[in-house]
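G.,

No rush on this.
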Amino acid sequence: MDPVSIAAVGWGITTAGWLVSPIISKLLNKSFSYLGSRLSDDSRLKNLDSKLLRLKHMAENVEVSGLQHAKLDEWAKKLNSAFYNVEDILDAIDYHCLKSEAVHRSEKSTKQAFNVDPSSKGKLPSAIDMLENLINEGQELLSWVKLPANSVKMTNEPTICKTGSNPPHALFGRDNDVQTIRRMLHDAPAAGEPGPSMTKCYSVAAIHGLPGSGKTTLAQSVYEEEKKVQYFNVMIWIHVSQNFTVEAVTSELFEAESGQECKVVRNLGKLQDQLREKLEHKRFLLVLDDVWKTDVRKLDTLLSPLTAGDSGSKILVTTRFEDVAKATLGAQKLFPIPEIKEDQFIKMFMHYALDGAKNSGQELREHAIVGREIARKLRGSPMAARLVAIQLRGNLDIDHWRRTLNRDLLNGTMGAIWWSYQQLEEHVRQCFRYCIMFPRRYQLQRDELVHLWMAEGFLETASGAEDIENIGHACFDVFLSCSFIQPKEHSSYMRYFTIHDLFHDLLEDWRPDINVNRDAGNDYYRIEKGIESEIPEHNQVRHLFIESYNKKLFEEQILKLKNLRTIFMSATTKTIMTEEELELLFKNLRKLRVVHVYYYKYKGSKEIPKFGDLKHLRYLSIDPNPDDGVYVTLTLPCEFTKLYHLQTFYCSSSYVFHPSSLKEKCKLVNLRYMYGP
C-alpha cells in the first residue's frame, strides 16, 4: 500500500481510537461529576457517549481523500484541542482540590474542595458545549463522506502481543551470508586496501539493502560469531544517528572501549587522544549500524583516532545507500543483502507466529495453511514477517488470521508495520507516538520514558485500579517485544533503547497526521540542529524537543507556545538557557507538565529559579551547569512545595528544601521519585 493510502486509512484509525479511549471516557465522566445537577443528571453524558461510538464507527470506515481529508483534518484538530482544553480545566480543579486538602487536612468535604477555584469550574460548561458542538459537526461532516459499500469495520479488535510468550530472535536462510561477511573481515588486504605500510590500519566492508531487509540482524549475527573466536582484540558496536555529532559518537566509542562513563565532552581533541591510547596496537572491529548520507569531513574527524589500531582492523557498516558505503566511507568490499529463499522465509514467519503454540494439531494445520499465504504477501521482508507474526501469535482465532490475509495493507514492509501498529490499544499507541518527539537514534531509558508517559496522563485506565508504573512497563515491553524499540549495546552502568528507524519512517514520512514538523497544527515539534524554521500554529504545539537553542528562538517562538505541555532539551545542545530565561519559561508557559532543561547557574547563585504558577507540572528535571565550573548545594524555592501534581523530580546538583518550606514537604502527595547526584 502506498503512503497516500496508508495516510487515508490511518486518519480514520487514529481518530477512531482516541475517541473512545479510556482516557476520553474518564475525562467526560469526571467533567459531569464536577458539574453535577447543572447538566440534568447523566442523560447528556450518555448521549455524548453514544455519539462518540457512532463517530468512531464512521471514522473507521470512511474513505478520505483530497478536499475531504483537509476538512476532516481541520475538524479533528479542533476536536483534539477541545479535549485538551477540558483536560486542562479539570486538572486545574484537581490542583485546587489538592491545595485545599493540604491546607485543611481535617475537612474532608469534596464540595469545599470544588469551591476553592470557581474560575476553573466556571469554564467547564462552555468547554463541554464546545466539545459537544464539534462532535455534532463531525457526525455531519462524516455523513457526507464516502463509506465502503459493505461498511465493514476496517480494523480488528486491538491486541497487545504477549511479551512473555514470544520466541527469541532467530536467523533463517542467512548462514552462508554470515560466513561470507566473516571471510571479508578476515581476508588479508587486497591491492589498494590498507596494509602494514599504509596510513590507515583498517579497511571498510559494508552491508547495504532496503529498509527492513535484515541488515542489522545479519550484522549482529556476524558480531556474535566474532566474539566467540576472539580474532579482534577490541569489538565495538555503534548506532549512528541521521544527524550524529562527532562528540556524541566519539564519547560512545570511548565508553565502549574503556568501560568508563563519559557524560559531557568538553574537549574533543583530548577525548580523541585518550581513545587513540586505548586502541593503540590493537586489532579492532567497529560496526557502524545504519549510516545515512552525511558530511565526509564529519566522518573523517570521527574516524581519525582509529588510525592508532593494528593492521587488519575492520569497520563493518550497515546502510540503506550503496553510494554512502562506496563514496563516503570508501568501502572496498560490498555485500548487497539478498532476499531470503521463500521456504526459509515462510519457516521464519511460522517460527514467530506458532512456535510453542498450544492449540490442537488440526487447528495448527489450518493456521499453517493461512500463515503461509500471509507470509507470501510480505514480499520477503524479515522485519514485516516478525511484526505481523508476533501480532498474529497474540490472537490465534483462525477467523482473525483469515481476515488478516484479506488485508491489502499487508503488501510490503511499511504496510505491515502500519498494520502491526494499529493492532495496539489506543493508550499504547499514544505512548508510542510520544516517542516520535525524539530524534532518530535518540537514547531512551525505560524508567525515564515511563515517568514521562505518567506525567502526560497516557497511562490512566478507565478503572484506575492498576498501578500506573506497571501499565507503563507493560507498554514498554510490548514495544520491545514487537521490535518497535530496540535495545542498544550498553555498559554495566546504564541500558539504553532506541526507536526502530522504520517506525520513524512510518510516523514521520508515511503518516501526515502524526509526523513531526511537517504539518502545521501537529502536537509534536522538534527544533533540530542546522534547521532554522518558524514554528507553525503556536497554539497547536504541545510537545517540544530542543536540539538547537538560542535566545532569539526562545523570545520569539518558544515563549509563544502557550499550550505547551512538554519541553525537553537534549543533552547535546551546546547553547543552553540562562537562569532568567528559565524563570521566564516557568512564568509564561503555565500549562507545562514536563520540563527537562539545562541552564547556566551564575557564580554565587544558590537558588533554583522560581517555579511560578505551574499547576499542571508533574515531571521536573533540571541540570544547572555552573558558569564557574563549581557545583554547590542548591536551595529549592518556596513554591516547590506547591507543586501538588509533581510526580518526578531530578536535579544534577545537590539540593535542599528552603527553610521556610521544610515542614511543607508532606504536601507533595503525588511525588513518587526524587533523584540527585
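When you get to it, here's the other one too:
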Amino acid sequence: MADPHRGTSQRGFASMDQDKQRAIAAKGGRAAHASGNAHEFSPAEARLAGRKGGQAISRDRQHMAAIGREGGHARHAGMRQQQQQPADEPLAERSPRQQG
C-alpha cells in the first residue's frame, strides 16, 4: 500500500494521522464552546440564513438562466434516450433467449 505522506512534509496538521487530527480538533471545539466563541444555528436562524442566501443567488439572472438551461438539457437528453430504446414487448412474444 502506498504511503499517504509520500511527497509531503512531515510537519503540520495535515501530515498527522486522522485520529490525532480529530483529537486536536475536538479539543479546539470544546474550548470554543467553553469560551463562548462557538456558534450553533437555531432552526429559525438557519431558515433566515438560507432565505437570505437564496434571495442573493436568485438576483443573479445569468446564474439562474444557466441552471434552468442545464436542467432543460438534462431532461431533453433523458427523453431522447428513452425514445431511442425499443418498446418493451410482452414476455410471451419474446424468444426464450430474450427472456433471460
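The radius of gyration is 27 Å. The mean pLDDT is 82.

Enjoy the weekend,
O.
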